[in-house]
Amino acid sequence: MTVIQEQAIQLIQQLPDDKIQAIITLATDEIHLLQLKKYEKTLKKQNAIHTLDNLISDIPEIYPYDELDKALEEKY
Question: How many whole angstroms separate alpha carbon 34 and alpha carbon 29?
Answer without folding.
Answer: 9
